[in-house]
Amino acid sequence: MTSKKVSWTATALVILVVMGMWEMEMASAAASAAQCVVEKRLLIDACKPIISGRPPSPQCCGRLRVSQFACLCPMITPKLAALIGPSRAVRILEGCGRRLPRHFKCGSITFP
């Protein structure tokens, strides 16, 4: 009888842990949406000069290295993609130390 109690208790504990992990995951998803807003603003402020053809500043490179593609790719509209161009975008990202997978699609740019 005690082994059934231990088994039931262990099962209940596992269910509670899984539910707690699921709730933490849901909370972090909400936080990452808010974080995306902050990341976009920081990137725009740091990297605005590259739109006009200037090389990225150290601050821009720092933002490009730490920003999440999931936050940034939706910003790449066809108009912005035409201003920067895929080959220049690759040079900027790799020059800043950010690696890209082959044939990676980010917004309106598909990288070679």
Automatic annotation (TrEMBL):
Keywords carried by this UniProt record: Signal
Signal peptide stretch: 1-29
SUPFAM superfamilies for this protein: Bifunctional inhibitor/lipid-transfer protein/seed storage 2S albumin (SSF47699)
Superkingdom: Eukaryota
Pfam families registered for this protein in UniProt: LTP_2
Domain Bifunctional inhibitor/plant lipid transfer protein/seed storage helical: 16-106
Name the UniProt record assigns to this protein: Bifunctional inhibitor/plant lipid transfer protein/seed storage helical domain-containing protein
Protein species of origin: Escallonia rubra
Source organism phylogeny: Eukaryota, Viridiplantae, Streptophyta, Embryophyta, Tracheophyta
